[in-house]
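*** Protein under study ***
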Amino acid sequence: MAHIVFYEKPGCGGNARQRAALEAAGHTLERRNLLTAPWTREALLAFLAPLPVTDWFNRSAPRVKSGEVLPEALDADTALALLIAEPLLIRRPLMQCRDDGSRLAGFDPAAVHAWVGLASPVPPASLDTCPSARHRCPTADTPTEGAAHAPV
């Protein structure tokens, strides 16, 4: 089993389900707050470089959903600057395996299973997206119950 550094948005229900799937497979997690981590170009690119620029973005972020930020219109340098300035836009979770240093962005169950293994097959929509367009994850300004106690 792997020890994984798990960068998440505290209070996010999707991240909670993703953590549960990893822990059910026997992995241990070191949880970190994606929104307050000291991101640099190099640190963020270590997770995102294998993906197309459009896949660097959290499609559920308010500025992306509203059309204010158009990932398809951004080059890598502009996208990185925007993600560092506004981490809420970063696709999550970002995960790093402590055992071998490998990294993964987002939670596509098939990719996660190939990377470190999951206990059982999981429908892709249940872990890589928010459960409802009506549901809004809390922002850094409005934590959910229990979020203040979560180690990050």
Q: What stands out?
A: The chain has a mean pLDDT of 86. The first strand starts at residue 3 and ends at 8. Residues 25 and 119 are 4 Å apart (CA to CA).
